[in-house]
Amino acid sequence: MSNIQKVSDAIVKQGILPLYFNADENVTIEILRSIYKAGIRAVEYTNRGEAALRNFKKMVEVRNVEMSDLLLGIGTIKNMAAAKDFVDAGADFFISPGFVPEVADFLIKQDKFYSPGCMTPTEIIAAENAGVNFIKLFPGNMLGPDFLSGIKDIFPNLLFMPTGGVDTTRENIEGWFKAGVSAVGMGSKLISKKLMSEQNYAVIESETKKVLETVHSVKKS
């Protein structure tokens, strides 16, 4: 099985992709441990600050020792320099806020999973023609489930995941899955700045577990 397929299958099976960033290395690692304990086996760390690359390298170190079955991805990849940095750092998958053709080409040739953010059929077509098969609908709250319902038949071979504004409620999650998503990306609605600043890892773990259960329940219904 290709690495791209392995990552795709893991995200689809999980049904949710948690994403977060924290400048503090210790907080970053403790959040990782908390969501792993909750049952998460694929997570996106966002490349949003000077500490991101350094923290990510530490995450890979800890993962290799404590959580060997966890896939570590990097988000907010906007250019080749960042893509190369995080390939070298050992990222298992890559996610962008928009479609970056040269990054797609670079990563796909190395059998690295790449999911670009798209918000128009034109962008989705460009990504599909570049060999991408997993599309991040971004920003999800601006597009909404109706957008996917309206275009999904045009893209029968693609998988979709909304990110940005996806809520933790059953109603919101159900709306997206009924529209045809394969997973939902969840950032601050799940791992909030408040919980991070309070270092409330127990609540992060319990909330993640709850959302995982909701997602799996919705997928079965």
Layout of helices and strands:
Blueprint: H1 3-14, E1 16-20, H2 25-38, E2 42-46, H3 52-66, E3 71-75, H4 80-89, E4 93-95, H5 101-109, E5 113-115, E6 117-118, H6 121-129, E7 134-137, H7 140-151, E8 159-162, H8 170-179, E9 184-186, H9 193-197, H10 201-220
Parallel strand pairs: 1-2, 1-9, 2-3, 3-4, 4-5, 6-7, 7-8
Can you give a write-up of this model?
With 221 residues, the chain is α/β, with parallel strands linked by helices. Helices cover 52% and strands 15% of the residues. The protein contains ten helices and nine strands. The strands form two sheets. The chain has a six-stranded parallel β-sheet with strand order 5-4-3-2-1-9, sandwiched between helices. Strands 6-7-8 form a three-stranded parallel β-sheet. Helix 8 crosses helix 10. The longest helix has 20 residues. It starts with a helix and ends with a helix.
The ordered H/E elements are HEHEHEHEHEEHEHEHEHH
Structural class: alpha/beta
Major sheet size, sense and barrel closure: 6 strands, parallel
Distance from first to last alpha carbon: 29 Å
> How would you describe the shape?
globular
Residue stretches low in confidence (pLDDT < 50, at least 5 long) are none
Q: Which sequence of strands runs across the widest sheet?
A: 5-4-3-2-1-9
